Each structure stands twice: as structure tokens, then as C-alpha cells.
Amino acid sequence: MNEELRGTAAVVGVGTTEFGKLPGYSANDLGGWALLAALDDAGLTSADIDGLIVNRVSSYEAIASHHGIQPRWAVQLPAEGRMSGASVQLAVAAIRSGLCRTVALVYGNDGGSGGATYGSAGEAYGTSPSLTLPYGMTSPGAFYALMLQRHRHLYGTSEEQLAAVSMTFRAHAALNDNAVMRKPVSLEDYLASRYIVEPMHLLDYCLINDGGVAMVITAAEAAVDRPKPPVYILGAAQTGQLVGSDFPPEDFWAGALRDVGERAFRMAGRERSDVDALMVYDNFSPNVLFALEGLGYCGPGESGEWIQDGRIGLGGELPLNTSGGHLSESYMQGWGLTVEAVRQLRGECGDRQVEGASVVQYVCSSPVVSTVVYGTER
Prior knowledge:
This protein has helices spanning 27-42, 60-67, 83-96, 111-114, 140-155, 159-173, 187-192, 220-223, 254-268, 286-295, 303-306, 325-328, 335-346; strands at 9-16, 51-55, 73-77, 102-110, 195-197, 200-201, 210-219, 231-240, 277-280, 359-364, 368-375.
């Protein structure tokens, strides 16, 4: 991805379902529900879609056939949340290269009512490698607990400091009618919540719930006559950190985060200081600390102190996860955060709106690190 791709594609439609426990709906049902909402938001029909990217539904064929889509180009990506940012980047590349003109991105998740687990015996998502199981590393949470423990050892990061993530995101969710968890969280609530894998509390963990998210991305020249203002994809980058220490990485993904941040901003023609809000993949609250440090919003080891005193809340210097994120709105594996970025740039977020937002960044720290920079100006 390079400067030639800046603003060549734009998001013209987004759609979400209700979130929570939605028994009776399959992942395909939920993805389709969101797709219909996104098409309506874009003022388009399935006949206008000639590209299709699907994630965590049964197949691109099922979504296409059920919704009358005849794609010239279709891709199905793995279920991991790290694929959400990669999907947006892939859609831009497909449009720019002429493979298609208007891409629907569809995600469906019935994990809440389906009893999905992420770790332990019998889980289906590949998060418990057999070589680590004998050492007690039975879930993603165990790996993040190790990373947090090391961060605390190196930098003195405290439980009280980390609590700001859960508290702030829950306060944002209280302003979001579609959020699953809206009851305020106090410091006392956070500290009293049980440990899942010490030092991580229950309130450091994302939700497991049902829901669907969809987006429609089209060529920039076709985006200007849609019902909603276009949100341009200004920059995007990803890089894998899959060799060597693997997971957990000793540097908290700082090297990979710095790389994707620099490349995405260079492509976007923007700087970190231009960002009005940041959407961070918060599968676990420590990931917020790692993302802020790796992207350079604060120095190594400074994130625990940096996020205090309302800095990451609405009205603060850098509002984060204004929908409530994975910790409080819903766990849509990055997709819901991307839609929140679009809605913020359209000015559609009501009481949680970031005033004057014109640039919003999304970032996912994982074995495949990705970031996307969205903006109102091409």
C-alpha cells in the first residue's frame, strides 16, 4: 500500500445488528442482517455489489446466494479478529486494481448463544497450541496476563492505572443504546472483580456475544452521490510478527506497531497529531496500553500514567473506543470498532460524538498487526 492508494476508496455504508444473546440466529443470519442494513445505509442494492469479503460466516457462497450477489471477486478470510483491518486493506487494493468496484464486507458471530470459548480443551479457534498447554497457557487471556505481568515488572504499571480502560469504555457504552454492558464501573468495582488469569480481572476481558457487522466500500468517484457522506480510507498497513518469540512478543508488538503506524500515516498524508479518536482492538485491556506505546502516542512504559485523568475519554486529548469497544459494547472482533470510526466521522454518534472529528484511526495489536486511517477529506 502506498500514497497512490490514498483516498481511492471510501466507506459508503455500514450496518450492525443488535448485540447480545440472540438465540435462533446463525452467523449467516447475523451477517446478512447487517449486510441489509449496510446496503440500505449506502442507498444500494445487492445488484450493485461486485466484490465480497466475508469473515466468520459459513461461506461467501452462502452469503452471496442468499442475498442475490453475483461477485466478480470474492474472498473468505479466517475467523480471527486480526482479519478485520486486513479486510479493509484488501478491499481497497481490489478496487484500486480494477478487480471490482463496490465491495461488501460481511461479518457474523453467534458465539454468545453458541457457547463459544477461546481456550481450554475443545475450543475451535486455534488459541491453545499443544506445546503450550502443559505450561498452563490454555487461553489467549493467559498470554496477555504474562504480557501485563512483564509490563508491570518493567514499568510499574498498576491495577489502579489499568482500571481506567474498563471504567472509561463502560462510560462510553452508557451513551450507546446498542451496547451490551452499560452499567457504570467504578475503581472499586474493577478491583473487586475476580481474577481470571492473574493479574487480569474479569473486567479486563472482552465480551462473548452474538451480532453482525457489514460495510460497503466503493471507488471514491462513486462515493460522492451516496446518501451519507463518504468516509475515505486514507491509509492502511499490516505486518506479521510470526517468527521467533511468536506470542507473547517480548516487545509488546511495539516494533510492528511502529512500522504499520508510520506506513499508514505516510500513505494517508497525515500525522499522529491529526487523529481525533483512536479505536483500539481491546480483546483484553492491556492491549490498549501496548497499542498506545507502539504507535507512539506515549513513550515505552508510560501508558499506565498517560491514560489517567480523562485523557482517553470523551472530551479528553485522545478519545478511545467511543462505542464501549469489545469490553462493553460487543465483541465483534474489530468490525464494530471500524463501524464506530465511520459513524464518528459522519457525526452520527449523538451523546458520544467527538466534536469535529475528521480523522479516526483503527489499530489491532496481534500476531498480525494492522491499522487503518479514516478521514472525511480525500
